[in-house]
Amino acid sequence: MKEIISKDNKLIKYVSKLQSSAKFRREEQRFVSEGLRVCLEAVSSGAEITDVLITDEALSKHESALKPLLESNAKIYLTNKNTLSHACDTKTPQGVVCVLKTLDNNIDFDTINNKYVFLENIQDPSNLGTILRTADALGVSGVIMTRDCCDIYSPKVCRGAMGALFRVPFTFVDNAQKFISDFNNHGTSYAAVVRDADAVSKVSFQGSALVAIGNEGNGLTDATASACTQRITIPMNGVAESLNAAIAAGILMWEMIK
Amino acid sequence: MKEIISKDNKLIKYVSKLQSSAKFRREEQRFVSEGLRVCLEAVSSGAEITDVLITDEALSKHESALKPLLESNAKIYLTNKNTLSHACDTKTPQGVVCVLKTLDNNIDFDTINNKYVFLENIQDPSNLGTILRTADALGVSGVIMTRDCCDIYSPKVCRGAMGALFRVPFTFVDNAQKFISDFNNHGTSYAAVVRDADAVSKVSFQGSALVAIGNEGNGLTDATASACTQRITIPMNGVAESLNAAIAAGILMWEMIK
Q1: Is A243 on the interface with B (CB under 8 A)?
Q2: Helix (H, G, I), strand (E, B) or coil at A22
Q3: Is B106 within the bounds of a domain?
Q4: Does B135 touch chain A (CB under 8 A)?
Q5: Tens-place pLDDT, residues A21-34
Q6: 3-class DSSP state of A86
């Protein structure tokens, strides 16, 4: 096990750059997971881990729990809290950090009764992370994203998703309208909108279904909403104009899955 | 209209301290709202505004929209962006900041078919803000909180709530169990728990109802869960252990209200 004690170490700088730059993550096709639990989930999901940084403190505290990581094909580096903090997005790093290849969670579109969520231009990483966590908890079959959504591998998304990246199948599409039209051949797509729509509580979501959710400020584009089979909405009894995008997505996924 | 151009001005320091210290907010019984829209909602809700800080830029841009604020009983101060940034919690202040007396949104427990949410020891300000915003949007009749919840007047809660503080009735209780026992005399209380409970989709929430939601990590205390009439849960089909507290609260409020 090699030791890293300098914040100027190449790997520390590499991890730090992966944490801060979406462009660099795309170029390198790598991202970073922080925390013992999430790193262990990464191993058990079969994700390819290239490097693991562990503080001396974490190693002595969690030696047996760390076994799957230590026995993986990844290179293992021993470091200390202060050095690791230069590679971490959080102020108080948990002592275990992994570098991983970006995932290839292909969605299986073949089965008959699957439920999907389609996200168009979601911009807030906390919202995307929470939507992934919710999709995972409720048992959504897959998350489809347009390429203008915020980066799924950003530290904020990973933190909010709490390991859901390693469990929920997800994929990206270049052309939202084409994807939805194709989907309509074997399922029903529902556009979540704020007006001129059926109340979600009246929709049965039978068979394969997809619910499409748009940008936090502007909702779905007209083109994408029009591509969907049906328009649905969450009726608001109150005076607030709208729900937070993650809450709206949570209620819609719940209605689709329950 | 007085002018403030120094970051060392007494009011700038006072606002800054209100933003950063829950203890100071409690002692002074004051809190701060940021942003044109939220400040206007504060006026129209009848909240007592003591001071308003407006940048020269915001004044020239929004002069007519600002009228209700300028005509309120509050003292109005003209300032500039740089000075105001020292009084703001956000990096890019929106140009309008109010100091308000803490609210007295008494909940009306007299009507017959009201739906409430009861929060015990919610610790994350983003969660509390989002829950208030959701309660407002869905038309929940009131939010009841134990005193160990995070401070409802913190800048993060206010930001997440997007003005819901001025619209949703809320109150605090010293004794959760006593409050719920009293509530049970004229309604039904539901404890949101993770096991040994009925699926929320099977519950009708007829008449006056209250759903109790606990701390992010530990859920409801046993004593509070036991005080409730019925235990309910959101069935999880997936592998994640739990939903984010705000999402769980959103789904539960939706089921209760719809």
Answers
A1: yes
A2: helix
A3: no
A4: yes
A5: 999 999 999 999 99
A6: coil
B234 and B141, same structural domain? yes
**Which residues of chain A make contact with B244, given a CB cutoff of 8 A?**
130, 133-134, 160, 246
- What are the two backbone dihedrals, phi and then psi, of residue B226, each rounded to the nearest 5 degrees? -70, -30
With a pLDDT cut of 70, the percent of chain B lying above it is 98
Comparing CA positions, the residue from B141, B211, B199 lying closest to residue B171 is B141
Own/partner contacts of B237-242, CB < 8 Å, gap of 24 or more, are: B237/A138, B237/A139, B237/A257, B238/A135, B238/A136, B238/A137, B238/A138, B238/A139, B238/A140, B238/A167, B238/A168, B239/A136, B239/A167, B240/A133, B240/A136, B240/A137, B240/A162, B240/A163, B240/A164, B240/A167, B241/A137, B242/A137, B242/B194
Does residue B27 register a pLDDT over 80?
yes
B137 contacts chain A (CB < 8 A)? yes
Residue A6: give its domain's CATH number: 3.30.1330.30
Closest by CA to B101, choosing from B4, B154, B26, B162, is B26
Say if the Cβ atoms of A244 and B138 lie within 8 Å.
Answer: no
Q: Nearest by CB to A201, which of B135, B242, B258?
A: B258
**A184 residue type, one letter:** N
This model of the complex carries an ipTM of 0.89
Distance, in Å, from the CA atom of B102 to the CA atom of B92, rounded to the nearest integer, reads: 25
Does A204 contact B at CB distance below 8 Å? no
Alpha-carbon distance B106 to nearest alpha carbon in chain A (angstroms): 17
How far apart CA A229 and CA B205 sit, in angstroms, is 32
A110 inside domain: no
Distance from CA of B140 to the nearest CA of A (A): 7
Whose tokens are 């940084």? That residue is A53
Q: What is the pLDDT of residues A79-111, one digit of tens each?
A: 999 999 999 877 777 899 999 999 976 787 777
A66 & A146 share domain:
no
| Residue A130, in any domain of the structure | yes
C-alpha A126 chain-centroid distance: 10
Q: How many domains does chain A have?
A: 2
If asked whether residues B170 and B89 sit together in one domain, one would say no
Under 8 Å between Cβ of B53 and B86: no
- Based on the fold, state whether residues B165 and B240 are members of the same structural domain: yes
CATH number, domain containing residue A131: 3.40.1280.10
Query: Within a 10 A sphere around the Cβ of B181, how many other Cβ atoms?
Result: 13
CA triple B1-B6-B8, angle to 5 deg: 120
Nearest-CA distance from A25 to chain B in Å? 26
Check residue B241 and give its pLDDT.
66
Residue A41 at interface with chain B, using a CB cutoff of 8 Å: no
